[in-house]
Amino acid sequence: MNLHSDSAVAAMIGAVVLSATAGDIAISSALKKIGDLGQIRRARGWGGALCAIAGSGRLFCGVGFMAASFFALLFALSHAEVSLVAPAAGSLTFVANAIAAKWILRENVDGRRWLAALLVCCGVALLRA
Amino acid sequence: MTSKPILNSTPIPYRAPRPEPARGAEGLSAGKYAILGVVTLTGAFGDTLLSIGMKRFGPIPLARPELMIRALYSPWVAGGVLLLLAFFASYLTALSWADLTYVLPATSFGYAVIALLSKLWLHERISAGRWMGIALIVAGVGFVARGPALTPNSEPPPTGALQGAEEG
User: Do A25 and B100 touch (CB under 8 A)?
Assistant: First the structure.
């Protein structure tokens, strides 16, 4: 398989975006389940807050996805130009996160948040281009 | 014969309960805005320190992965890693009381901070397109920061998780 073909590069960027989005969604979902870490720390101290985090398998799953995203990005950067991979992965991750947060986390992604995600997405693409 | 008053006649002043900020309330406390600021700044400064450190260390060939460990002894890289650990801790804290779709755009100002650091500190050139990108990110941050931080009907924490907090 030619790793420099357009479809291979698109698959690499897709892998970065999907793993980063899965990581963010898993971590956010885990922390919504755990609750406000500030309140837990005030009630049970730093040890209690760390125990609450350490007991969440979903959070570690999210960290694993983030690590996978990092290595997928390194792999993509070794086969494609940084000026293509970095803006595409960065900006698409914003949009993928907004879609996944709406459908998986049931967040209230109103017009204001869609607009913010799209503005930041375009801004990141311009910044890294 | 004097009758004993059944109830104490001293009027008890009414004390309104202190309003607790509800999950999903529009306004964030100053402390929570500070945590969002810490997420933004530690991420931006951590990435910049890592970038400086790795440029000074030089390229690492795939055949010599042990050089990655040696790079950690560089003060720039070590500083960057410490800042990124602080970034992760504050990011987790922010996600425990705010939506993902609030935290990500609200802290994306870090991209603009990196661009400004690269101009002011590393003396890199910022093109007109990049200034436009910074402007769009700032506009996006402004949009989302004026809205609610948490979806009110989002998944509540389990009863056990905050039991101690409510008692305290």
Answer: yes
